Amino acid sequence: MNIDELPLAPNIINFLKSEGYTELYPPQNDAIKAGLCDDKKSFLVSIPTASGKTLIAILAALSHISKHKTKVVYLSPLRALASEKFEEFKKLEKLDLGRKIKVAISTGDSNSTENKLDDADVIIMTNETMDANMAFGRDWVFQIGLVISDEIHLIGDSTRGPTLEMILTRLGTGFLGKTPPKIIGLSA
Fold first, then answer.
1. Torsion over CA: 123, 64, 149, 29 (sign)
2. I need a surface site. Which of 30, 89, 111, 182 has the fewest CB within 10 A?
3. Which pLDDT value is given to residue 131?
């Protein structure tokens, strides 16, 4: 599928082209055809490393924030991976959706991010930091409309899995009465 054929606004298409995207890889195409940009469908995307999971996440995030004022949270099991994804998602701040997109990161190593999370449209976090924010009942947690969980296969890991499982269960069942967000799981 050509980038021009995506079910996204023309300014988003132009932004993607300016970032060098012209055509989707087959797994990305399959995700779009299966309804990635549909607000109601949660997804599990299991494809090999370097086959385009990040673009799938970006497309889902762009579709979501172009239609809603709720937040997108990108969960990562590792600080280094969270930092890498933050750099990629930070590019979204160049896009004009009638408002400026704000991207923030919180990996538990800085206390100076609290106010930034309240104002952010896209928040990149480690699983443990998300768990802590949910436990402390941060106001912004109730504004999440889309959760992208990278390396979701770690849910079966004896040390890291329980935290991720609790986060996704709490969110997926309507965390404290909130409408459950769409969840996209990414796995190699």
1. negative
2. 111
3. 93
Structure tokens at 75: 């969960």
Distance CA 1, CA 28 (A): 9
pLDDT at 113: 56
Closest CA to 154 of 182, 186, 122: 186
Using DSSP, state whether 187 is helix, strand or coil.
strand
- Backbone torsion region of residue 174, taken as left when φ is above 0, otherwise alpha when ψ lies between -120 and 50, otherwise beta: left
Q: Contact 148/8 with Cβ under 8 angstroms?
A: no
The Cα 99–Cα 118 span in angstroms is 16
Q: Do the beta carbons of residue 13 and residue 3 sit within 8 Å?
A: yes
Per-block average pLDDT, block size 10, for the chain (188 residues)?
92 94 93 88 88 94 93 94 95 91 86 73 95 90 93 90 92 77 92
What pLDDT, on the 0 to 100 scale, is given for residue 96? Answer: 87
Q: How far apart are CA 66 and CA 58, in angstroms?
A: 12
Strand order through the sheet with 71-76: 43-46, 182-187, 144-149, 71-76, 122-126, 103-106
The two tokens of residue 69 are 């004022």
- pLDDT at site 173: 84
Amino acid at 178: K
Residue 24, classed as helix, strand or coil, is coil
pTM: 0.93
